[in-house]
Design brief:
- It contains two helices and 75 strands.
- The chain is mainly beta and 873 residues long.
- The protein folds into six domains: 2-36 and 571-667, Immunoglobulin-like; 41-203, Immunoglobulin-like (Sandwich), CATH 2.60.40.10; 208-371, Immunoglobulins (Immunoglobulin-like, Sandwich), CATH 2.60.40.10; 376-453, no CATH class; 673-763, Immunoglobulin-like (Sandwich); 770-871, Immunoglobulins (Immunoglobulin-like).
- A hairpin with a 2-residue loop joins strand 50 and strand 51.
- The radius of gyration is 31 Å and the shape is globular.
């Protein structure tokens, strides 16, 4: 179970329970004993017959933030009560009837919802269904118009459907505040079931500004070109200018005024998630004739190359490699020099002469880019003859280490052609897997395959992959079921079956009820996504029982043992944690803030329905201990901590120590992806061997990552297709061609699940060496250690990391105990084997040799790893 609760913070795929229980996500418990009861709301309406009169006995289903069933009374009315704020869909049904509208999407936000009415018409004609999927966002409403009307909110897996539709013409239109959709709508002529009506949601980008000052000239025109080309602006009376509405990307800023020249002529700007200031110019009165000079960069990578002209003016090439400088004084020869880390250019620069007195445009001869490190690519085709659909992720692994960090990778929309660039000479196997469940997680039911071994020796090679549906075992009964109550809901978690870290079930079904068999209420089905947990909105005071089953390709396991009775209500007493949560922009959903203890699986939380930054909060029922202090603004109001929310989950929540009442202030950002350029020094004196490695990572944040490409960086094969991990981040690691240098920058082009792109950059901030290794490593088989559970000890490194705090991580591998790892504070210099209970074997084997490592890791993740060997008695 600890793995499950830890996933709540680590993977950040939680479903919040509703008005009061959303807090549970933060802290599985939550408010003081005298806290007011959770505020809930109702949805109600009436079903009438088209021929007149009430329609009684109609089944009305509620889905969305919570699920329920109702039946219309004799007067045709129905209602659902005890509902938290959230997105819902109301759908009526009765044999021999069709309804208008088919269904209605409802948003509950601080008030009861009435008047959700339907008209029933007796009709035994053939009916059909329309279904599809929305990717890139959650909480999307699909409106149906045409021969009948209706609306629904997509399910957690992005799917939606309308059933019981007569033949005719229909239009589907998706909507969600802050998003646009492709296509904007779909029109369908329905004469049979219509499936696959997909939409892609794209978040509207957040714009920033460029500003500066121009001296020596008044009313100067400032023109910005590049990723966008806004209308020119004019400097104010003090020479200041301000250009707004610019999304991330590369730009060139150019001042112009008749009779003036400027220094510099133009300047390049890279917009990356923040305003850019201080782009200043100096104007000089001049009667010189000027011209425009243009050129092109060709070759391996042409975009984002900085071109520096004689005199210091700069500009950046566009996606086609083109660049230009305006208002260049005539009568001189100018040199143009390209630069982008990791590339060389042939020739290294080019010159162009502007004839005196000429204003004619001048073209600079082209310059060709090549990676400073020779590299090649693997191309091929992914084929699949099965019925499943979904994006396909590919990784190129060294043939002798399939499953290690891949040498490169990519993602394609479905079976078809692919290319992985940035590979050096060597032998490779290409592994591919389809994300058929749409969760971004590995699953045993996903189609997969791998190529034959291919060898790169100075040229591009081809490797084709055939995906097949894997053989799957019958579903295993989940274990460790745990139902934890909170203010306004229950948090249900369990342990599913895994093999080699791959989940074996594709869905789970949670049964619950007021009876001891947990069977008299509608069961809840959830998609398997490596987070075997579910948060349920339930009114305080209710007493419930729970059990869970696993499903594989429709087959269902036997149920787990029933847990209960579980009495829903707040956790009271102990300490309080309070503070403020600061976040950018305007919240469009509730804030959940809490503390989580991974050791005891304790969660305490608070939920604010309509937060305004900075938002105060208080959490009760918190015992002394160390927690992760997390927060999530649920921007799409779907009850999950997912893409599009403003949050610090996914391993980003800060640590907080509670000893009495404690303050925890949190600042959230809308970072879409976090890059990291880290280094690792490794030493094994028994060989002897040492190396310095460069580790590059990109971790998903505000958005889900589709793929990542390294486009710039010293001593790297470029451009390098890095692909993505099943958990939404990517990593690349190799022995550095040369020892990394502090300050070296690496630029990653991230493509998100909504098909938008962003360039993100990080720089090396530390390079460890032998002085950063721990000293005097010792393995003791005497008390407190033993022959099978030894104690590991060491002395602090001669040079401790500058980036505090730093930690130690002790790891062991070898036969008998395949793997064990534990991270501890730098104040601790010894630890017993399996101290955290996470080893794959609880005791070591006799007369067996093991490797053990102690990693010194600074605050950023730079490491110095000392490996030693020992043999048990």
């Amino acid at each position: 179970m600890n793995k499950i609760w830890h996933g709540l913070i680590k993977a950040a795929k939680w479903l919040v329970f509703g008005t009061a229980f959303a807090v549970l996500i933060s802290a599985c418990g939550g408010s003081s004993s005298d806290a007011p009861p959770a505020v809930t709301y109702a949805i109600s309406g009436t079903v009438t017959q088209s021929a007149g009169g009430a329609a009684s006995g109609v089944a009305v289903a509620l889905s969305g933030t919570s699920t329920a069933q109702a039946t219309t009374a004799a007067d045709g009315t129905y209602s659902f009560t005890g509902l938290a704020n959230g997105n819902y869909t109301v759908t009526p049904s009765k044999t021999g009837n069709i309804f208008n509208p088919i269904s209605q999407a409802v948003i509950v936000s601080g008030a009861n919802i009435t008047g959700k009415d339907f008209v029933a018409t007796a009709n035994n004609a053939a009916t059909y269904s329309i279904s599809g999927t929305v990717t890139g966002a959650t909480g999307v409403t699909i409106a149906l118009s045409g021969a009948n009307t209706g609306s629904t909110v997509i399910a957690a897996d992005g799917t939606y459907s309308f059933s019981s539709l007569l033949a005719g013409s229909y239009t589907l239109t998706p909507s969600l505040t802050g998003y646009t959709f492709s296509p904007a709508s779909r029109t369908i002529t329905l004469a049979a079931a219509s499936t696959g009506n997909s939409f892609t949601a794209t978040a509207n980008p957040v714009a920033h500004s460029i500003s500066g000052n121009v001296s020596g000239a008044a009313s100067v025109t400032i023109t910005v070109t590049g990723a966008a080309s806004p209308a020119p602006v004019t400097t104010d009376g003090s020479g200041n200018y301000f250009v707004t509405g610019l999304n991330d990307g590369d730009y060139t800023v150019t001042p112009t005024k008749s009779g003036y020249t400027f220094n510099p002529l133009s300047t390049s700007v890279t917009m990356a998630g923040a305003d850019v200031t201080g782009k200043n110019f100096a104007g000089t009165a001049s009667t010189a004739v000027t011209a425009t000079v243009s050129g092109t960069v060709t070759g391996a990578w042409v975009e984002g190359v900085t071109i520096t002209m004689t005199g210091g003016a700069t500009t950046i090439t566009n996606a086609s490699g083109n660049y230009s400088f305006a208002n260049v004084p005539s009568g001189a020869t100018y040199t143009f020099t390209p630069s982008l880390a990791g590339y060389t250019y042939t020739p290294a620069s080019q010159s162009a002469t502007i004839t005196a007195g000429s204003a004619a445009a001048v073209t600079v001869p082209s310059m060709a880019a090549a990676s400073a490190i020779a590299n090649y690519s693997i191309s091929g085709t992914v084929s699949y003859a099965g019925s499943k659909t979904g994006p396909v992720a590919l990784w190129a692994y060294p043939s002798n280490c399939i499953g290690c960090i891949p040498a490169g990778g990519t993602t394609i929309a479905g079976p078809g052609a692919y290319t992985i660039r940035g590979l050096v000479n060597g032998n490779y196997v290409v592994v591919a897997g389809m994300d058929a469940l749409g969760t971004g997680q590995k699953n045993a039911t996903n189609p997969n395959g791998q190529s034959a071994t291919v060898s790169i020796a100075g040229a591009t090679v081809t490797a084709n992959v055939t995906l097949t549906d894997p053989a799957v075992a019958a579903p295993a009964t989940p274990t460790g079921l745990k139902a934890q109550p909170g203010d306004g809901g229950a948090f249900v978690g369990w342990t599913g079956a895994y093999a080699n870290n791959v989940e074996l079930s594709d869905h789970y079904k949670i049964y619950w009820g007021t009876d001891a068999a947990a069977s008299n209420l509608t069961p809840i089905t959830v998609t398997a996504d490596n987070d075997t947990m579910y948060a349920q909105s339930v009114a305080n005071g209710g007493v419930y029982y729970y059990k869970v089953t696993a499903l594989v390709n429709g087959a269902e396991s036997a149920p787990s043992a029933v847990v209960g009775p579980v009495t829903i209500g707040a956790v009271a007493g102990l300490n309080t944690v309070s503070g403020t949560v600061t976040f950018p922009g305007t919240a469009t959903g509730p804030l959940t803030v809490g503390v989580y203890d991974g050791t005891t699986s304790t969660i305490r939380f608070a939920r604010i329905a309509n937060p305004v930054s900075p938002q105060a909060y208080t959490i009760t029922g918190v015992a002394d201990g160390t927690y992760n202090n997390f927060a999530n603004v649920d921007m799409n109001n779907n009850g999950r901590f997912d893409s599009g929310d403003i949050r610090n989950t996914g391993g980003q929540a800060p640590s907080i120590t509670v000893a009495g009442n404690t303050t925890g202030n949190i600042t959230l950002t809308t970072t879409a992806a976090t890059p990291s350029a880290r280094t690792r020094f490794y030493s094994d004196p028994s060989v002897p061997y040492s190396s310095t490695n460069l580790d590059l990572h990109v971790i998903a944040g505000f958005k889900s990552i589709k793929t990542v490409m390294l486009i710039s960086g010293k001593d790297m094969p470029l451009p390098l297709d890095m692909g993505r991990d099943w958990n939404g981040f990517v990593a690349w690691s190799a022995n550095a061609v040369t020892t990394p240098v502090v300050g070296q920058a690496y630029v990653f082009r991230v493509t998100y699940a909504d098909n938008t792109t962003q360039d993100v950059t990080d720089s090396v901030n530390a390079v460890f060496n032998a002085s950063n290794l721990v000293q005097s490593p010792v393995v003791s088989f005497t008390a407190p250690g033993s022959a099978t559970v030894p104690q590991f000890s060491w002395a602090a490194p001669a040079a401790v990391p500058a980036a505090a705090p730093y930690t130690y991580t002790v790891g062991l591998n070898g036969s008998g105990a395949n793997w064990w790892q534990d991270s501890i504070a730098s104040s601790t210099l010894s630890v017993l084997y399996n101290s955290n209970g996470q080893a794959s074997a609880s005791a070591l084997s006799a007369a067996t040799t093991y490797n053990w490592d102690v990693y010194v890791t600074d605050a950023k993740g730079n490491t110095a790893d000392l490996r030693s060997k020992f043999t048990t008695p």
